[in-house]
Predict the 3D structure of the following.
Amino acid sequence: MSSKKVKIIAVVVIVGFAGTAFLQYKNAAPIADTKSEDVRTYRITLTSLGFEPEEIDIAVGDTVVFSSERNTPFWPASNIHPTHEIYPAFDPQRPIDPEEEWAFTFTEPGKWRFHDHITANFTGTITVGSEEEKSLWKRITSLWKEESCEGVSPENLQYCWDTMLHDSLLHDGLDAAFDLFIKLYRTEAEVPKACHGWGHILGEAAYTLYSNGEQFELRPEAAYCGYGFFHGFMETLLFSTGNISEAQNFCAEVDAKIAGRVASSGSTACYHGIGHGVTDGTDPRLWGDADTMVAPGLLLCEKVSESDFQEYLCATGVFNAIEILSTDEKY
């Protein structure tokens, strides 16, 4: 096959809440902003700064081709991180080699937030459908002020909660979004099963404030959802700066701020949270092999800890997470 022709690696056709996905090599014929019978193909590229463009508007049946300028694998997928449950078909199910591209045809109208599963602080939004077809997400988008998804069908609840949390963070800031996060966790029975990614989002937002020298309230509820908050905070910190000392300083501040307010108080919560969070958001490529699943968390524990005791606290988080995950067959 000529290098100028598209080489199809895999085709996934999913019926119902679905779309069509395929992989191709980058040296294929260019696919970007083409049009045939009112169906278009768009391109989103992962750069060193994130997805470009970060937001696009498309029609039902249009295709988006994802590629990367980085020299490492990437994994564009639907929210929520790391389970991708909101639009499960929008997920290549594995990392994409930087020499490849992945394309997905959107068959469901909505406002679909996505992220790079490998570097979860890289995010974007794809809005799909005509104005009439977008009525569902427009109604849901307005519900963030009411902090309620009452009346939303069960299959759209995750979508509604995710939208409310993002919009609350965007419009009202971290404290208000954290209040909503706590409320959802305590009142919605399904939320604790799939909210690690929401804690992750709050942790990312907290790091942005922290890195700018701005104050925020560190809540004991940062431990909710598999310590997703600490995972998001540390992942963003280490990706942004690679500064291990800064990570250690943050845990020292945690010690001062929430000592005695949670069962694992102070820096115990911070270091335990780092290990637990990294493992709870484990890469699906590693599922089925416990030793491999704990390895990234233990490596990070070794990097961020200043003492054997801190490394021990971090490791307790790793093994606590793997114990919890072991109760679910999919892991």
In short: The chain has two domains: 11-133, 173-325.
